[in-house]
UniProtKB/TrEMBL annotation:
InterPro entries: Polypren_kinase (IPR032974). Signal peptide: none annotated. It is an enzyme of class 2 (transferase). Keywords: Endoplasmic reticulum, Kinase, Membrane, Transferase, Transmembrane, Transmembrane helix. This is dolichol kinase. One of its GO terms (cellular component) is endoplasmic reticulum membrane. Belongs to the polyprenol kinase family. It is a multi-pass membrane protein. Its main location: endoplasmic reticulum. GO terms for molecular function: dolichol kinase activity. The gene is Dolk. Its EC number is 2.7.1.108.
Amino acid sequence: PVLVESLLVLAVVLLVHTAAWDRYSWCALALAVQAFYAQFKWDRLLQLGGAVFQFRTAANSGLLPASMVIPLLGIVMKERCRAAGIVYFERFGVVVASTGMLVALFLSVIAVGITKPVPTNTCIVTGVAGSVIIYTMKHSLTVSEVIEVLEVLLIFVYLSMILLYLLPRCFTPGEALLVLGGLSFVLNQLIKRSLNAVEGRGEPIDFFLLVAVVGVVLLGLFFTVLFLFMDSGTWISSLFFHMMTAVLGLGVIMPWLYRLMQRNPLFWLLQFLFQTQTRVYLLGYWTFLAASACGVVFYQNAKRSSESKKHQASTVTRKYFHFIVVATYVPGLIYDRQLLHVAAVLCLAVFVFLEYIRYFRIKPLGQTLRHLLSLFLDERDSGPLILTHIYLLLGMSLPVWLFPRACAPKGTLSGAGALVPYSGVLAVGVGDTIASVFGSTMGEIKWPGTKKTFEGTMTAIFAQIIAVALILIFDSSVNLNSSYAWILASVSLVSLLEAYTTQIDNLLLPLYLQILFMA
C-alpha cells in the first residue's frame, strides 16, 4: 500500500511538472524522490519506537504525500498568478513552494540523522535533492524572501517541539508536517502583515482567517501551560477559563483585528453577515443544518443502551455529517463565497474552542461533550484530542480559503480551475462519503493490502463526475472549457489515493484535488 500511495503521489507531481515545467517543478520532482527514500526511514523509526515524539501508530509516516502538498500548491499558484499578470502573488507562490520544500527537507534530514546505522543511499539522495533545492532558492529568491522562508522554518521547529510534546499520538509525521507547516506559515504571515498594517494591503476576510487561526492556537497553548499547575475540572478553574477567554478575546484578538482591518471588527462582522437578504437566508439555513447535526449526535447517543457502552457509531452513521457538510457548503459556493469563507472561519474557531472545553473538562459542558463525542471516535483519534471533525471542516474549507481570488479577475479561474473551491465537496463530501458507504455495504473486491474496495472507489469516481455535471448546471460561473479529460484523471487519481492512504483523508484529498484542478 505504501508503494502504491507513493506512485500515485509521484503521478500527481509529474502532472504538475508537465504543466509548469520550470526550475521549481524540477525541484518538486527531486523532493518527491528524496521524500520517498526518507519515508521508509521514518516508517522504520516508528516501528522500532525510535522517534523522538509519540506519533499515531495505526498509520505509516505519510512523509511523501504530506511533503508534496505545500510545494505543489505554491507552484500551481505561481503559474496561475503569472498567467493573470499578478506579480505580487506570483512571488508569493514562489515563497510558498520554497518554504514547503525546506520544511519537508528538514523533516527528512531528522529521520536520516537519527537512523542507525546511517543509511548511505538515503543520505546521498537527500544531499543531492537538498543541493538542488537550495541552489534554486539562492538564484530565485530575494533577500527578504529568503528571510521569510527561514522565519517559517524557525517557527515550524519551535511549534513542532511544543505541540508534538503536548499532543502525543495525535499526528503521524506527515500530518504533523502538513498541520504545523501550515500553522507556521499562517503565524508568519500574520506577524508580517501586522508589522506592515499601515500599507492596507489585504482584505478583511483574510485578516479574519489569520487572526482566528493564530488566536485559537495561542489560547490553547496558554491554557495548557496554566492547567499544568491547577486542576482544570473544578468550578473555580472553569470560571477562570471563561474569564481569561473573554479577556484574551477582547483584550488581544479584537485590538489585533482592529489594527489590521482599520475598523471595529465586531461592527464589520455584523454588517458583513447581514449585508444582503441572501446572506440572511443562508445563515438561517445553516443554523437549521447545525441543529440537525446536533440532533444526529443526541439521537445516536440516545440509541446507545446502558449494556453497550463500548458501542461505536458505524461508518454509515459517521457519514451523515459528510452529507450535512455538503448541504452546507454547496449553497454557499453557489450564492456567496465570501460569506462561506467567514462562516467557515467562525465555525473552525467554535470547533476548536469546544474541543478545549472537552479536553480540559471545563464545566458545565466538558464532561457532557466527552460522553457525546466518544460514540463517534475511530482509530485515528488515538491521542488526547478528537480532531477528525476539525479535519473534515478544514478539508471542506481550505479550497475556499486558498482560492487565489486576486489571480481570478472574474471571480473564477478558467478550465478545471473553476472547480477549485469545490475540491473539498468533491473529494470528501461526495467521493470519500460514497466510497465508504458503498464500499462498507456492497464492496467485495478489496484493493491489495487495504480494507478499501474496488466497488467503493469506482462508485466514488462516478459520483464525483455526476457532481461536476450538477455543478455545471447550477453554478453559472463555472466554465470548464472542455477540460473534461483532466478532471476525470484528477478525480480518479485522488479516489485511488483515498483507497491507499492511511493519513487523514479529510485533510489530504481536497488539497491534492485542488492542486490538480489548478494545474
